[in-house]
Each structure stands twice: as C-alpha cells, then as structure tokens.
Amino acid sequence: MCEHQHVRYNPLKGDWVLVSAHRMKRPWSGQEEKPPEENIPRHDPKNPLCPGVTRANGKVNPDYDSTFLFDNDFPALQPDAPDPGPSEHPLLQAASARGKCQVMCFHPWTDITLPLMSLAEIRTVIDNWAEITTDLGTNHRWVQLFENKGAVMGCSNPHPHCQVWASSFLPNEAAAADKNQKEYFNKHQSPMLVDYYKLEKEKRERIVVENEDWLVVVPYWAVWPYETLVLPRRHVLRLPDLTSSERDALADITKRLLCKYDNLFEVSFPYSMGWHGAPTGDLAEAENSHWQLHAHYYPPLLRSATVRKFMVGFEMLAQAQRDLTAEQAAEKLRNLPELHYKIKRQQED
C-alpha cells in the first residue's frame, strides 16, 4: 500500500481524506495531554453517576448492581420544544428539533471500563442498547447511542457510561450515510457495507480483530489515527435485529478490541464511539435495505498516551488529514495482545 502522500475516498460520507504517513517522522514539541487518572475510587459519594448518590436535580440514584438508565438532567433535546415558525429568509432557515436524551451507566463501579468488564456484563449493555433503540425508535427518526470515554474527549465523569440522543430529525452524519448508502445500493444492488465487509475479509490488510459474526477494521478511509469500524457478517439493519448469538459475539469482539486499544499505550484509551443503523420512527417504514448496522470508534491518541491528533488548520478549513496509513494502524493494533495490561500486571505480581 502506498506510503507516499495521497487522498482516499470515504464512501459513507462522500468526502476525501489526505494521507501523509511521512509526517509521523516529524519531532513533536506541542501540547501533551494529562494521562487518564489510574487511581479512581470504586464509589465516590460526590459522583452523580454512582449508586445511591443524589444528582444535581435532587433525584437519588437507586442502588443499582448492573446497568442504570435515566433521563439526562441537562438534555440537549427536549420533547416539548416549540416550533421556531416559518423562516424569514433562505439564508436564515430554522426548523423544529425535538427529542429525548438519556444516560446509561454500564456498571455500578467507577473504577472499571468496558474492556475490564466480563463478557456477561458487556452482553447486558448490548441488550440494553437494543431495548433503548426499540423504545426511543418508536417515535424518533434517529436514535444515537454514543460513548465519550476520557477527559480528552470531553467526558466530564470517569464512571463507565454512554449517552442516547433520540431526535425527531435525521442528523447530518446519518443523512449523509443514508444518501450515500442508498446511491451505492441503487447502482450495485447490494448494501455498501456488506460489500465492504467481504472486501476486507478478502484483502485482510486492515483487519484488527474478527470472529464468526463480526469484523473490526481500520477503514481504508479512516481519519483518526486508530479509528475502527465494527461490521456484522450478516446483513442487519439495527441493533434490536441482532440474534442472541450475534450479541454474544459482539460482546466478545468489543472486549477484544478495547483491550487492544488500552494495550497500545498502556492507558485507558480515550475515544468517541457510536452506533449507526437504519432510521427509525416514521422512516422505519421506508425501504432501508441499503443500510447496514455498524459502529464507529474515533480515538484521538496518535504518538503516545499524551500526544493526540489535532483536527485544526487544514483539517478544519480544507480537508481531513491523517499521519499514518490505515494499514499501519491496523497492523499495530492487530499485533497487540488481547490480555488487558492491568490484568497482566496483576498476574505478574
């Protein structure tokens, strides 16, 4: 694969990324991030996500011992927002935006993350994701499940959790993915990401981890240094459509991927991740065969636990750019052990 500068096309977004692998050789004297805190208490009475703690709105969390779902105390979307009314000018357009925001804690302990949870615990998280999608998807066009992990990704709380934003509209990323997948399907009579799964299985250059039902790759068009794309083997539209065995396999592939992430720099690896599936609500009744369920992981770390990739300057004003090839990133991740570094240390002590 070419290691000289070149551009690659992202068929999901319909845009291009500049690949400049030679830039990894440049010295770095810029900003370094503070490594994630390693000594986190298991229970913090001041942490609003812990069991039994009173949150800012006065509500008391139950003494939960598994997952815990609640309405976001400071939601970006509310169900009863008024309509902004007609737009006064083509350049000054506004439209209604309604929805619901929730938070789901993965585990009662604050000092644990998904890669350190058991497969059964991760499976419970997956089942909850599916239930939430079904519930909120009844009357919302889009249900965005996402996890921001680490302070560098804007996470204000170390407790293991994700967010759910359900909206009355199709957000920009979803709308682009819908449009581009539909155009590909109409041209090739096959879902884009089903074809991509087969292509990556054949080439095997960008595979990070795989099992019978799932494939994780650093996508050919990756923007973030160690970005990955999680794909099911079978054509699946949404999380609730997964079979029990596929959910077990997803728990397995999630744990293995996230252990590799943490092992890369031996740190709790920060990222933003989220699931994309076919639209819901009234759009669920439309023809959605062009869709394929998938998850994106966008980690910012580049050179070490303290040096991240910055999307500024050219990236903000012109085009996304990455500093190593997808193939190089995949090889680094693929060759990492799947035993978490913390577990290994415990076994060596």
UniProtKB/TrEMBL annotation:
PROSITE patterns: GAL_P_UDP_TRANSF_I. Signal peptide: none annotated. GO terms for molecular function: UDP-glucose:hexose-1-phosphate uridylyltransferase activity; zinc ion binding. It catalyses: alpha-D-galactose 1-phosphate + UDP-alpha-D-glucose = alpha-D-glucose 1-phosphate + UDP-alpha-D-galactose. The active site is at H161 (tele-ump-histidine intermediate). Residues 31-46 have a biased composition (Basic and acidic residues). Residues 4-171 form the Galactose-1-phosphate uridyl transferase N-terminal domain. The keyword Nucleotidyltransferase applies. The keyword Nucleotidyltransferase applies. UDP-alpha-D-glucose binds at residues 23-26, 56, 72-73, 148, 154-156, 163, 309-310, 314-315, 321. This is Galactose-1-phosphate uridylyltransferase. It comes from Branchiostoma lanceolatum (Common lancelet).
